[in-house]
Amino acid sequence: MITFTEAQLVAWVSPILWPFLRVLALFTAAPVLSSRVFPIRARIGLAFLVAFAAQASLPPQPLISITGPDAFGAVVQQVGVGLAIGFTVRLVFAAFELAGQVVGFQMGLGFAAFFDPASSAQSSAMGRFYAALASLLFVVLNGHLMLIMAVMHSFEAFPVDQNFLQALSRIKLHELGANLFASAFWISLPVVAMLMFANLALGIVSRVAPQMNIYAVGFPVTLAVGLVGVAATLPMLEQPFSSLMEQMMQVFARR
User: What pLDDT digit, counting tens, does each position of 209-220 carry?
Assistant: First the structure.
């Protein structure tokens, strides 16, 4: 009769269990990959495939008894780090959506809002447009491969040691949240500058020709200038998206 000891089972399961949990948590929180159109079974299978294929490049995993008290701390750490990686990518998407909302507000499209079932909140038309553009850039620029690289490098920066609070303090998610607003305003700055000059010109016209109904003329002018500005800056959005994704990679690759 073939028998296995607990130590043998732990030695077989540990190398793939902890990467699997971290990758699965990443797929649960990361945008695009966590979409409702992506079946849960396919998500679990893909996470297992990634964890299995990464065994050759991962450092040796510690042997932690699955039934012991240390297993709970290890599970919390893997899930927490994976969710943190997915959350940082969501911050990149949120920066683009915030930039779109700022541009839409300056264009006079602040009233063009509708219910977004993904976030269960009101979202402006330009915000959704920039969010969809970020999703396309994520796929085109191989953002999914960058996520897999980030989670693999995270095992060197944040090894499996059951200390989730220490890993969370080193990630410094609060600093990433602060950079969200700065990145959003830098993305929207060219269009906002164009709209500012357009509003300045309209103000001068209203002073020169008071009989002109500036409210009837101003809205189509600002809308047209905003659309021209958005169309002119769309080819340049690749660089800020790549820069933000690289910043995310550096957070989980540093030791």
Answer: 776 666 677 778
